Amino acid sequence: RVLRRRQRLSHLSSLEDALNLLKTSKNIIVLSGAGISTSCGIPDFRSSTGLYAQLQDEGKYELDDPQQMFDIHYFRERPEVFYSFAKQIYPSNFVPSPCHRWIKLLEDKGLLLRNYTQNIDTLESLAGVEKVLQCHGSFKTASCLRCKNRVPGQTIEPFIMSQHIPYCPRCQEEVAQKQQKKDQLKRSKGKGKARWDEDGEEEEEEDIWGGGEPGIMKPDITFFGQALDSEFDECLFKDREEVDLLVIIGTSLKVAPVSEVLTHIPHSVPQIYINLTPVHHVKPDICLLGDADSIVTDLSSRLGWTIPSPAAVPQP
Ligand code: CNA
Questions:
Q1: 289 - beta bridge partners?
Q2: Main localisation, per the record (predicted)?
Q3: Which runs of consecutive H residues, i.e. helices, occur in the chain?
């Protein structure tokens, strides 16, 4: 049956087919990437004007590979590099694009099963989309690398803006308390006789309180080398039973495991790929190449659908 379905899908290629699929499908998964936010002024990763190219050109961060900027191992070693740059990608005054509003339209029509977004800019939520899974997290919250303390993203916003490393408030308190106890102990010992070892040297004080440095806070965006939240697998496990159309927009499909969504949903589910540039490592059934905002606007007008106006979505 799968083979028959695939044979039928192999005839799909045109805009007409895409329109028919959109007209007849009821449980659409939208898999989106950085390309739906470029028109909002947020560069993607891999375009010729994207962040990777910019990081390479600027050279000021002295990265061996631009991907290091989002690598957890590199972050642990040199958090100051990320914090000297993070302000450039921090979601501040961006306004959702027609693509974000098109996803909202699908939801309003009861056609959206879920939007799996790789984006960290939270513009889907700003457009009012509720059935959205931010697969790579967002700046909404931040966590301590040491004690896992989670705080609202606004807590570290001033640090991002002033390009300083934020340390964990809970760890800082803990370290201060430990230091206080140490000082008390030292003072009480100082009152009595000093301790000497057999060679007559003063003994090293044993660090019975532990202590050390407070942990560094990291925005809860998924870096290379970090696992995705289990919610991703749970949602996909559920959705694969219901999905009847996969629409992929504005992604190079280079980052796993999100790029593997294509292989995790039944092969009988048709796929429409909307992107500026073609993909070569996968073969979606229908490829609509060009600017994503123009394509979804064109599809909508042909279907007689109206994309909500920017005024209809809350402003930042
Ligand atoms: P990517 O690898 O940079 O791919 C983006 C794709 O979008 C490219 O194939 C472009 O050709 C295409 N594209 C760019 N502009 C348009 C446009 N106007 N219309 C249609 N297509 C366009 O980025 P992916 O999303 O595939 O990679 C996943 C990474 C990118 C995730 O980890 C994200 O966190 C990360 N990222 C997110 C943002 C954001 O939140 N806005 C920005 C930059 C990077």
A1: 275
A2: mitochondrion
A3: 2-9, 15-24, 51-58, 72-77, 79-85, 98-108, 123-126, 157-162, 169-191, 230-239, 261-264, 292-303
Tell me the pTM. 0.86
Q: Is 136 in the active site?
A: yes
- Beta carbons within 10 angstroms of residue 42's beta carbon: 19
Q: Is 71 in the pocket of ligand 1 (CB under 6 A)?
A: no
C-alpha atoms less than 13 angstroms from C-alpha of 198 in its C-beta half-sphere: 0
Q: Which two tokens stand for residue 230?
A: 């289990």
What's the confidence (pLDDT) of residue 211?
55
pLDDT recorded at residue 133: 97
In the sheet with 286-289, reading across from the earlier edge strand, the strands are: 132-134, 112-117, 28-32, 245-249, 271-275, 286-289
CA dist 20 → 9, 26, 69, 303 (Å): 13, 12, 42, 9
Helix crossing, 292-303 with 98-108: angle to 10°?
40
The pairing of beta strand 245-249 with beta strand 150-152: unpaired
Q: 237 C-alpha vs ligand 1 centroid, how far in Å? A: 25
CA-closest residue to ligand 1 atom 43:
44
Instruction: Give every residue of the chain whose pLDDT is below 70, as ranges.
Output: 1-13, 189-211, 312-316
How would you label 252-275 residue by residue, b for 16+ Cβ within 10 Å and e otherwise? bbebeebbebbeebeeebbbbbbb
